[in-house]
């Protein structure tokens, strides 16, 4: 029996990955001592573009920008999860129609 998958679970998983993946990318960058900025890192953490301001600001400003970039990334991951859910449901629905014939 196939268990029904809900949109809420997909979005929750996307939001969780939206927090986990950028944190893992930043921790890996700090631990390895490499520069941040490969194309894969920009793809996984698109909100990181806000962190590249070279002018001097307070640490509160830096934390605020980091929080906003993380929220933007979580929103993008959740939106991608909604799109993938729609694609998944469409494929499963089409497969069920084809299988009945």
Mean pLDDT: 86
Q: Specify the structural class.
A: mainly alpha
Order of helices and strands: HHH
Task: Provide the gyration radius in Å.
Answer: 18 Å
What kind of sheet is the major sheet? Answer: none
User: Unreliable segments (pLDDT under 50, ≥5 consecutive)?
Assistant: none
Strand content: under 5%
Please estimate the helix content. over 70%
The backbone outline, from C-alpha atoms, is elongated
Number of helices, counting only DSSP H or I runs of 4 residues or more: 3
Counted beta strands: 0
What is the terminal-to-terminal distance?
20 Å
How would you characterize the overall build of this protein?
This protein is an all-alpha fold. It has helices at residues 7-32, 39-44, 59-100. The protein is elongated, with a radius of gyration of 18 Å. The relative contact order is 0.16. The model has no long low-confidence stretch (mean pLDDT 86).
Jot down its keywords.
mainly alpha; single chain
Topology:
Elements: H1 7-32, H2 39-44, H3 59-100
Helix pairs in contact: 1-3
How would you summarize this macromolecular structure in one to three sentences?
The protein has helices spanning 7-32, 39-44, 59-100. By secondary structure, it is mainly alpha-helical. It starts with 6 loop residues before the first helix and ends with a helix.
């Amino acid at each position: 029996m196939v268990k029904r998958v809900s949109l809420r679970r997909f979005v929750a998983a996307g939001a969780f990955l939206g927090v986990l993946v950028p944190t893992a990318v930043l921790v890996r960058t700090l631990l390895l001592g490499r520069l941040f900025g490969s194309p894969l890192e920009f793809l996984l953490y698109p909100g990181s573009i806000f962190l590249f301001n070279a002018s001097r600001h307070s640490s509160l400003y830096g934390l605020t920008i980091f929080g906003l970039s993380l929220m933007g990334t979580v929103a993008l991951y959740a939106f991608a999860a909604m799109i993938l859910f729609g694609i998944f449901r469409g494929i499963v629905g089409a497969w069920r129609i084809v299988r009945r014939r």
